[in-house]
Amino acid sequence: MYICGGFVPQLENARLMLRQLELDDAPDLLCCWSEVEVREYSGIPELESIDLAKEMITFLNSLSATEDGIRWGIIDKQSGVWMGSCGFNMWQLEGAYRGEIGCEMSSLFWGQGYMREAINLIVQYGFQVMGLNRIEALVDPSNTRASRLFTSLEFMPDGKLREYRHTPDGFRDVFVYSILRKDWEGNQKGG
Q1: Which residues contact 186 (CB under 8 A, 6 or more apart)?
Q2: Labelling 62: which of 9, 18, 20, 127 has CA 20 to 30 A away?
Q3: In the prediction, which pLDDT does 191 show?
Q4: What CA–CA distance (Å, rounded) separates 182 from 187?
Q5: DSSP alpha helix (H) spans, 22-172
Q6: ∠38-39-42 over CA atoms, to 5°?
Q7: Residues 99, 102, 106, CA angle at the centre, nearest 5°?
């Protein structure tokens, strides 16, 4: 059975490197999480200082040590620029073999296919290394951009969880999207 043990492996493709978050990423994380457009549907907190961004990085990195989650920084390999983060917000192996992914990216990099590539990397890791059978994404119904992203990655809509998240505006529904290992493997063979 998969055990993270605090290790965040580096994942790569031709354009991107996913790596453990570093304290030096704090200015970029602060900038990204300060964007109203980025926070609008994600429920991530607004950070007000570099120190709070560093605390968030320390917290996100600690999730892998306690087997509660794993978060990667998304880096443009050519420029070395930090663009956002993605990872497993949680996973459950025994009895379920499923994981829930989450992601956010600075609006400077929207519409260029970076998040699509990053999600592909973590889905591959989830199925091939972690041994997951199901990977889920929870999406605010108003976030059409995320719905299009997950649909384009062959995630299937599973339904709506009513009033699943509490926000400053009250309780909000979320759509659940998922991809199963057998479907992903079939897509790999066919594509």
Answers
A1: none
A2: 127
A3: 58
A4: 9
A5: 26-33, 36-39, 50-65, 114-128, 144-152
A6: 105
A7: 160
pLDDT tens track for 117-158? 999 999 999 999 999 999 999 999 999 999 999 999 999 999
40, 46, 31, 41: which is closest to 106 by C-alpha?
31
Task: Quote the pLDDT of residue 169.
Answer: 80
Cβ-contact 110, 146 below 8 angstroms: no
Distance, in Å, from the CA atom of 139 to the CA atom of 116, rounded to the nearest integer, reads 15
pLDDT at 77: 97
In terms of Cα–Cα distance, which of 145, 146, 19 is closest to 84?
19
Instruction: Say if residues 176 and 159 touch (Cβ distance below 8 Å).
Output: yes
- Contact criterion met (CB below 8 Å) for 74 and 136: no
Report pLDDT for 1. Answer: 85
Neighbours of 11 (CB within 10 A): 19
Residue numbers in the chain where pLDDT is lower than 70:
190-191
Alpha carbon distance 164, 166 (integer Å): 7
CB-count exposure of residue 16 (10 Å: 0-12, 13-18, 19+): buried
Cβ-in-10-Å burial (0-12, 13-18, 19+) of 14 comes to: exposed
CA angle 166, 169, 172 (to 5 degrees): 45
